[in-house]
Amino acid sequence: MNIRSYSGFLDRLRYRVLFQLRLLDINKQSKSFSRDSKDSIQRIYVINLDRKPKRWIQVSNELKRIKCRSGSSLYELSRRFSAIDARYLDEKIDSRVLSPYFTLADQLHVEPNPFIKIDADSKAHKIKMTPQEIAIAFSHIHLWQKIASDDISYTLLLEDDVYFERGFANSLDIAWTDIINKSSQFPAFDILFLSFQEVGIKSDIKIHRKGLVHRPDCGIWQASGYVLSKEGAQKLLNMLPAYGPIDLWLNLQFSKLDVLLTNKPIIEQRVDVPSTNSYSIMPVLSQIGAYNHDMPIVPHQQKLSVPIFAFGDPGSGLTSLALALSVLGYTCCSDLTELPNDEGHNLFTRNHRCHFNAYVNIGQLNDWSVSEIFKIYPKAKIIYTTPNHLYNSDKILYLPQNHKDKWDVLCSFLKCEYPSSQYPNCIDIGQRKIDIDKNHYNKNLASTKKLHVDTSPWIISQKNWPGIAIQEDEKNNLTCERTIVSYNEENRLHNKSWKLRNDTFPSNLSIFKPDNVKILTSNIISMTLREQITSVRNFTSAAIVTHEKFLYGRYIAEIKPANVSGVITGVFLHRNSPHQEIDIEFLGKDTTKMLVNVFYNPGIEGTKLEYGYRGTPALIDLGFDASEEFHFYEIEWNRHAIRWLVDKKVVHERVLWNPTPIPNLPMEFNINLWCSRSKELAGKLDTSRIPAISKIKSVMIMQ
């Protein structure tokens, strides 16, 4: 597991310098590699996904840099091993080979955490591996099977995102000679790690280490570069089934194996290559408060082929294509009869002030001939989802709806990175009509102050851009009403509709505890934030969330928020994978205002896009102090617009692409009270006014 962050300028600069310095190696020949000697590393396997050919090229170039004993390059000893693709995993996993579950205690055995103990709770806390972790584990296990059956003494296993550090050949030769000369047995070891990240190590351990290699005296992450003996591979197979991420499981087997490490890593993972892995432990550590790094997560901006135009018949997969282009990082305008006036004018006159770089299923463009498109945009690319006799070109693609691997065809055509998520499969929504009669600039009925927004391909941040108002139809009418707030005899909010949170998140200085939710007289619910020291936080607070996820509807809460600086009361819809969110928040430093916000990431259920730090926030002037009396606050969410209401009056509205697309996947409904790490957002926490209390009088969901 490689979770190192290189987000700071100095970190990125240091990495780039070290990465380039490796090219200045004087000695580029390693005598530890030889095809003919059993006391040498005779073969190299590189685990590489079929859909990642660029990575194979990169690691091949790295292998060609270093020579073996005979003078030929390490590339001559290498074999590409086709990695298991997480997208094509079968539902059934052979339990004799791998169990997809591990426990929090397993994690803590490898990397102890000062906030969490190895106890009955951590041993009972099961964590399910992500599909990517399962695929990586199977790739390593299948390779062990091959090594165990080969007549080769030592094999180097590499993942495809590695590079050799400066001095690699010399450092390995010194260590290898030491190992072979001092060993009285054959093979000299089971596993030799050349790439690793030590965790939970005490400073005095490194000081007292002797020799050129050492046995593991702490936990290590990464299984991206290690030498495995034939006998070691067989031992690992005999120990199966594995459980948990493969590097975690290897750590837990160290006592049964002869394991060595070089005194420092001599193979490193590249951090300039986008990772497609997904770590199951990270959400768990964040929720229990053990992981508090709240760094902005920004999309990786790859160079895109632009602009894109896509055409096809109704029902041919155009809506799916538009979503796929969005996942690839395009700002995509789709499924409209026409473009907004300014956008159409800018596009036809090649004005660089266009808001979009991809246009899918736009009726107004149907009469625009291919020759006209290429005359104005010579580098444009055109995609057809129905057969067209013009698609025999490197600039024109036919993408049939029944193609088995649309990502492969699309990414090859656009020359972009192959995503780890599945290709979207959506029902075509057809071309929608723009409501040109709406006065978009008067939509924000209350005084509004827009705040700084995230940088994202799914946010249009240009000033005075009104978005795209779609003509609404009967499908947006909300007729079924239900109230889902209640409480039981134990004075707790607890039924089939709601759950009380018992977790936290990195930017929260408190941890949610069920005991902080109470039922007062007249059925009023109180949520309390108090000073209470726990193993992970110095404050506890309260949050309630629905068991069910909802798609569209009206969400109404009658509340009175706390007015303590540093404290936030939230009423919001939220989901992850992909991250989408619609917020109402009251900042305790000034409860005469209401903060509204939308986070949007594209994709279908399970797409691992979690970008967003600030979102797209705006402050609404309420004209009263919300902390003094109960008021009704409402989110009205449909396919084409989001409206925020106060006491049944619309105070703010956002239409399509103003400034984000409208969230389109089911979300949980939440009400919470918490204190933010961000003084810029919430103000400095006023501990003299704690405990802070927010109250709920009623909650209603209408669909």
Helix-strand makeup class: alpha+beta
**Contiguous runs where pLDDT drops below 50 for at least 5 residues:** 2-6, 485-491
| Range of strand content | 25-35%
Give the second-level CATH assignment, the architecture of the largest domain: Alpha-Beta Complex
Distinct helical segment count: 15
Query: What is the alpha-carbon Rg in Å?
Result: 29 Å
Word description of this protein:
It is a single chain. With 703 residues, the chain is an alpha+beta fold. The chain has 3 domains: 270 residues, Spore Coat Polysaccharide Biosynthesis Protein SpsA, Chain A (Alpha-Beta Complex), CATH 3.90.550; 107 residues, Rossmann fold; 228 residues, Jelly Rolls. It is 20% helix and 26% strand. The protein is built from 15 helices and 37 strands. The strands form 7 sheets. It has a 17-stranded mixed β-sheet that branches. Strand 33 and strand 34 form a beta hairpin. Helix 3 crosses helix 9. It is globular and about 85 Å long. The protein starts with 8 loop residues before the first helix and ends with a strand. The relative contact order is 0.10. The N terminus is likely disordered.
Keywords:
disordered N terminus, Jelly Rolls, seven-stranded mixed β-sheet, 26% strand, Rossmann fold, Spore Coat Polysaccharide Biosynthesis Protein SpsA, Chain A, alpha+beta, 3 domains, 703 residues, single chain
Summarize the entry for a quick read.
With 703 residues, the chain is of the alpha+beta class.
